[in-house]
Amino acid sequence: MEQLREEFVTEVHNVFAEGYKEYEDEDDLVEDKYNSFELTKDECMEFVGKNFDYIFDMEEEVCKEHELEFGYTWEERGLVKIVMFWRYMVAREYIAENKADIMEEE
After folding, report:
1. Which H helix or E strand runs over 54?
2. 62 burial class (0-12, 13-18, 19+ CB within 10 angstroms)?
3. Which pLDDT tens digit goes with each residue over 34-78?
4. Burial group, residue 30, by CB count within 10 angstroms (0-12, 13-18, 19+)
5. For the stretch 34-47, what's the b/e string if a residue is b when 16 or more beta carbons lie within 10 angstroms of its beta carbon?
6. Average pLDDT, whole number, for the chain?
7. 74 half-sphere exposure, CB direction, 13 A CA radius
8. Residues 6+ apart with CB under 8 A from 27
9. How far apart, in whole angstroms, are the C-alpha atoms of residue 58 and residue 98?
10. How many CB atoms lie within 10 A of CB 53?
11. In whole angstroms, what is the distance from residue 86 CA to residue 81 CA?
């Protein structure tokens, strides 16, 4: 799971570095790049490398984060919902923690 997360945050890092100037703030970028569309079931399976343990780990993270942020249990189910929310959650967290450093790289 850590390898998947590292590969994904590298993608997020590059997407933010290349495109942050086009958006008013980082929330708009994250929304546009990671929450304005849905991957297909096949794209989600490819994303997780067909590793069902990753899906279960993602679901656990997503449920915990949702409950912390919104105060109630996340009831969405299904591969696409889990993967999409996990990608959005990880991207939002990574950019919030690293945006100043990424912007300094230029």
Report:
1. helix 52-70
2. buried
3. 999 999 999 999 999 999 999 999 999 999 999 998 998 888 889
4. buried
5. bbeeeeeeeebbeb
6. 93
7. 20
8. 92
9. 22
10. 9
11. 8
Tokens 């994250």 locate to 30
Please identify which residue in the block is written with the tokens 């656990």: 60
* Distance, CA of 22 to CA of 18 (rounded, Å): 9
For residues 64 and 2, what is the distance between their CA atoms, to the nearest angstrom? 18
The two tokens of residue 73 are 């249990």
Residue 106 pLDDT: 67
By the 8 A CB rule, do 103 and 24 touch? no
Distance CA 2, CA 5 (A): 5
Place of tokens 């794209």: 43
